[in-house]
Design goal:
Blueprint: E1 2-5, H1 11-20, E2 25-28, E3 40-43, H2 48-57, H3 61-69, E4 74-77, H4 79-84, E5 85-88, E6 99-104, E7 115-121, E8 125-131, E9 136-140, E10 145-150, E11 153-159, E12 162-165, H5 176-182
Parallel strand pairs: 1-2, 1-3, 3-4, 4-12, 5-6
Antiparallel strand pairs: 6-9, 7-8, 10-11, 11-12
Bound molecules: glutamine.
Glutamine (GLN) binds at residues 45-48, 78-79, 82, 105-106, 132-133.
Length: 184
Amino acid sequence: MTGVLAVQGDFLEHEKALLSLGEDCFEIRKLSDLDREFDRLVFPGGESTVQSKLIKELGLFDRLKSEIERGTPVFATCAGLILLCDTISGNDGCCFRTIPADVKRNAYGRQLGSFYTEGEFKGVGKIPMEFIRAPYIKSASDDVEIMSVTDGNITGIRYKNQLAVSFHPELCDDMRIYEYFLSI
Ligand code: GLN
């Protein structure tokens, strides 16, 4: 059972992807939603500043952070990745800070920064990658595993139980990266 953070962003697409693989899921919108039994978390793309604000205002921050820290597998895409990184280049507004990495927001430019490509993802193979005003990882500590690199920039990382990518697998039909996540 996967809890999908549903305060903002493209959580519905993640739910569809998980359901297509037979993984049940529910939406996390308020603290009592976390009273349910679950063994995984998904943080969708969207707008990280808005998500971060809502996570704190809705009182979800402490509970979610402790879930991440106790080892619950998390799959985070785009804005979700930003929520996990320890620092945001040239910016404050960090959220969980559970991955020792520095992330650059809107790293490809604000408007023209959306593009599609295909690339190798470690342990998965060549997958479609949809980038939408995407961040990339500027630097990461040595124990952060690099899962994908796009045009010389890090776009996929794994740190212990946390898998985080700059792109949007939920917008593509290729489900292999979800299968990888479900195997963590
Ligand atoms: N640009 C967004 C941010 O900084 C992320 C974009 C996305 O999730 N597609 O939060």
